[in-house]
Amino acid sequence: MVNFRRNFAPAATYFFTVTLRNRRSPVLTDHIDLLGRSFRDVRAKYPFDTKAIVVLPDHLHALWTLPDGDTDYPRRWQGVKSRFTRALAKAGVPLTKDERGEYRLWQRRFWEHTIVDERDLQSHLDYIHYNPVKHGLVGRAADWPHSSFHRYAQAGWFDENWGVGPKTFDNREFGEPVA
């Protein structure tokens, strides 16, 4: 069995990648309203601040800051995943179950990285907001509707044409395989 080591730093900011098992499924964006409700329900019970987020059809990236003294992001992700899955089932979306009787919607684990400084934070903000362009879903970050990019652009942090054309990132920094 693989031994995963998580970093639990109180009041830290974390970068996450959370993925569906079926990497061809569009369920996250097809049911963005249910996903948003799941986030809001969990945040009401277990507070966190979403610094940035992008939701793609089959995965999402987020930057969260937890309250002082709180390190329990796994509980929050479990809550988001389970609430969203139950909401889909209740809405009649066909879902398959595994041999344990669990829905096979999400990959069992998620990628987590603790942000270490301002440069690291900026790099992850860029990565999150550029991700729809990277995956060929849009030509510029501003064209993807399911992103905190719009909030940052409105605040003047990003130009509306930011993220046009090829941009290079070292994918190893974000837990993704290097091609």
Task: Jot down its keywords.
179 residues, alpha+beta, Alpha-Beta Plaits, 5 helices
Q: Main sheet: which strands, in order across?
A: 2-3-1-4
Radius of gyration: 16 Å
Number of domains: 1
Helical content band = 25-40%
N-end to C-end Cα span:
26 Å
Strand proportion: 5-15%
SSE-based structural type: alpha+beta
Structure description:
By secondary structure, the protein is α+β, with helices and mostly antiparallel strands. It has a single domain, classed as 2-Layer Sandwich (Alpha-Beta Plaits). Helix content is 33%, strand content 14%. The protein has 5 helices and 4 strands; from the N terminus they run E-H-H-E-E-H-E-H-H. The protein has helices at residues 27-30, 32-45, 73-90, 118-134, 149-154; strands at 13-19, 49-55, 59-65, 111-114. It has a 4-stranded antiparallel sheet with strand order 2-3-1-4, covered by helices on one side. It is globular, with a radius of gyration of 16 Å. The model has no long low-confidence stretch (mean pLDDT 89).
